[in-house]
Amino acid sequence: MAASIGKHPCRLLWRTILSNGIRKTLVQRGLSSCQLFIEECGDPNEVLKNASIEIASPLASREVLVKMMMSPINPSDINMIEGTYFVQPPLPAVMGNEGVGKIAGVGKDVRGLSEGDWIIPADTAWGTWRNYKVALEEDVIKIPNDIPLLSAATLSVNPCTAYRMLKDYVDLKSGDVVIQNGANSGVGINVIQLAKEWNFKTVNIVRDRPDFERLKKYLMSLGADYVVTEEFVRKPEMKKLMKDLGSKPKLAFNGVGGNSATELIRYLGQGGVMVTYGGMSRRPVMAPTGALIFKEIKLCGYWNTQWNHRHADDLLRFEMLADLCSLIKKGKLSPPPCEFYALEEYKGAIRQATEGFKGGKMVFQME
């Protein structure tokens, strides 16, 4: 849980910059909220349930009423339901780690938030798969309300992960090369767009699929320099492609694991760094001994939740959010393709989210 704004000038500054005035209201009586929750971990298609509850009234002095507008289904959500995610909330718990809501009511002592403001959760396991939630003001972060709703709903996980991995591990210069697997994932798509904006080259690896050419065209339209398949990476033609780049990759992003991660290590240059942020194959990362000794390759891990905990009220976090929102406004950072579902359609949404070769991200749309 983030600390109160009274003790942290960075969060107060961020809210002051975005604030357009303060209005105090109380939640109306008889307000009900649909929510998706679990009582035990297991197969998401079996253990996820829905229920309607009544919202308590009135609000406490520092509480806000949040009306959720949109919330995606991320791999971390599925893992949390399964019980395999590193962080697990006490059960029963409403699910959903990411999303955007708007303030529908504020307590009498709330400062810096008013009705109509858009907010995102300040921490994970917030429970975004619901219509309404009463929260403390320090448990939310105000964001601009003049960006696309879908971009706001998918702001706090994938774009932030891509941003931090590109910024924090290697001092990249214009023209430097980044290689990644899972390039059509939410993180991968953001890496491509941010790298284009910052003038880094990207080599993007995706799984073999019948519609590869269509996917390649889409990723190239976002700014990808090269898009290849896992099968191509193991061919001699891949070595020629890497030679044509002029310089070897300094940085690699691994969201898959297994053999795919090993191939990334193989193509890294001397002293290169591979950052692992996911393991969709559920296979371990295997590193050739020679790459570690003679090429001095470094292996690191990135976890967005941990980064947020360490920088909960640092100016660094709010500068990042401001940068990302600015790029969104300029049309330089777009979310991945999405399919939309009402909360009541959760069974179909979860089924789609847990199947392979998804055409896009599944998103709950509350309004």
Automatic annotation (TrEMBL):
Family annotation (CDD domains): ETR
Start and end residues of each Enoyl reductase (ER) domain: 42-364
Catalysis performed (reactions): a 2,3-saturated acyl-[ACP] + NADP(+) = a (2E)-enoyl-[ACP] + NADPH + H(+)
Keywords (A to Z) from UniProt: Fatty acid biosynthesis, Fatty acid metabolism, Lipid biosynthesis, Lipid metabolism, Mitochondrion, NADP, Oxidoreductase, Transit peptide
Lipid biosynthesis recorded as keyword: yes
InterPro entries noted in UniProt: ADH-like_C, ADH-like_N, ER, GroES-like_sf, Mito_Enoyl-ACP_Reductase, NAD(P)-bd_dom_sf
EC number(s) recorded for this UniProt protein: 1.3.1.104
Main location: mitochondrion
Top-level division of the source organism's lineage: Eukaryota
One matching Pfam family: ADH_N
Subcellular compartments: Mitochondrion
Family: Belongs to the zinc-containing alcohol dehydrogenase family. Quinone oxidoreductase subfamily.
Name assigned to this protein: Enoyl-[acyl-carrier-protein] reductase, mitochondrial
The organism of origin for this protein: Aplysia californica (California sea hare)
Gene: LOC101858047
